[in-house]
Queue: 3 jobs
Job 1
Amino acid sequence: MTFYACRMSGKLDDLTRRVSKGGRGGGESDPLITLAQESFDILTILPTYIENAKESIGNLSGQMIVITLRLLSVQK
């Protein structure tokens, strides 16, 4: 996700530069079209990314509970 955010930032910077110069660009390299496509791609994978993150956090939480219980039992 960070990779996509950095790319989006670069595209927005490019658009800002083009607009400030009075141009818009064109063709397939038009940053507005690319930005729209990449935005759609991000929105498409976002639910999977969130679900995987939730699962990973759940797994980590479970591991932390086990480690904490083991440490508590050793200290007794």
Job 2
Amino acid sequence: MINRTISTLLAVILLLPGCAKHQETDTRVIRPPEWNFILIFLVDPSRRFAEKKFDAAAHRFLVGTAENYFRGRSEPDDRVLLASLTDEGGSPLLWQGTPRDLRRQFDTPEALRDFVTQHSRPTKHVYASLAKTLDYVSDLPPVHDGKAKAVVVVLSDMLDDSKTREQDLVKAAAALKRFTALRSEIGHWWVDWDAVPDFKKWYRKADLPEPHFIQQEPNPKPLTFE
């Protein structure tokens, strides 16, 4: 179980093998073989978040969280996935690799931020994008079949400015409820104070307890796992 004194985690995360380019038809992403542990980082590519909040401290948080999640493991089938909150159709995933691939390819905050922003189109529909990503992860055969544990970490201020926010909250709640029932967990870093009411409503609609903490620290500690 994720240490609740560190984050708002209730169930979630992601990453994949060093693809230098966005591969929309990568069958390894669509039908993974025998992934045992999956960590998914869902990153907000908006200028408001990516350019202003994704700094060296955020990079240390992401890399450190991956190291903590896979600590003591060297299984070749473990995976880190990168995905983005985007309006684009198709898979929300951008990249897959091992924890070592993550450190090697995205060795600086700029490398990771530029990769995400160059391969994504920002969206106002934060909760619709969350629903799509959580359903995608829930449908991965190892997760759906109970063979893999998935953790999704959302790096976003969670500000949804769309006109369909209320409808999207309902969809996102259904996706969250389904996801957390599959041995999976989700956590959040940097939820804006203005987004807290909708954020808490999302969890209530999913019949889940409210997160104990919402991290907004400028120097967040990486998530730890038991």
Job 3
Amino acid sequence: MAKDAETTIRESLDAVDRHRKRMFAGFVAVVGVMTVGWFRFGPSAGDVPKMLTATLFVLMLWTSAMAVAVIVQMTRMTKMILRAIDLASKPLR
């Protein structure tokens, strides 16, 4: 591989790493919002149906958020690496 190709791949991998850090920050924010929502609207003294509804809602949001996070991370990582490989395989002009 040429020096430019290695640099291109390294930059793409660094971009994937930066994206992963932003995803983690978003994950922390989602956890914070869900925790606040759980304690604010969740369990009430003696109101079991309301508590179960809030718990179900939080679990559905959590599962959906984690599925979306995994899909977005895998898609972005794959696109960036494939783009870097494509750029690295093109002849220099």
